[in-house]
Amino acid sequence: MFQPKPIENAGKAEFYRDLTEQVNALLGDERDGIANAANLSAYLFMTLPAVSWVGFYFLHANAELVVGPFQGKPACVRIALGKGVCGKAAERRQSILVEDVHVFPGHIACDSASRSELVIPLIKEGELLGVLDLDSPDLARFDAEDQAGLKGIAAIYVRASDRPIRA
After folding, report:
1. pTM exceeding 0.90
2. Is 14 helix (H, G, I), strand (E, B) or coil?
3. Domain locations in the chain?
4. Domain 12-160 - what CATH class?
5. Phi, psi at 69, each rounded to 5°
6. What separation, in Å, do the N-terminal and C-terminal C-alpha atoms of the chain show?
7. Which of 28, 57, 68, 105 has the fewest other C-beta atoms within 10 Å?
């Protein structure tokens, strides 16, 4: 069984190096995408400072994202491709870092206390599976180092999970 170790935060580079090591151990030999998404969202929520929501949205019928495992307040259940930060990141297949969600055109406010957001698309063998979404009540909580580190974490999830999550 996975036993988390405290991450000594000497700096973001070291933090994400240690986080990557622990995520590899957490997902281990498990191949089920739902189980891995559940454990990863819980682990990121308890490990990352100043986050209010961490979770997954999975692509269904190539038309919309549907909420998957997450930690935080209840979330929007369905998001159309191209709508909000999650839908835009999925449509573009690019991560999006938003320092202030209140100035992002078309932002979907599932939690009015959310101030910043980072969304990373999950792509396996050219196929969009969904997105990893992180929200914070702090303005400009996420930066380029967080974006790079969490893109690496999302890639671990994609590699570790055999079963595509689709409707």
Report:
1. yes
2. helix
3. 12-160
4. alpha beta
5. -55, 140
6. 30
7. 105
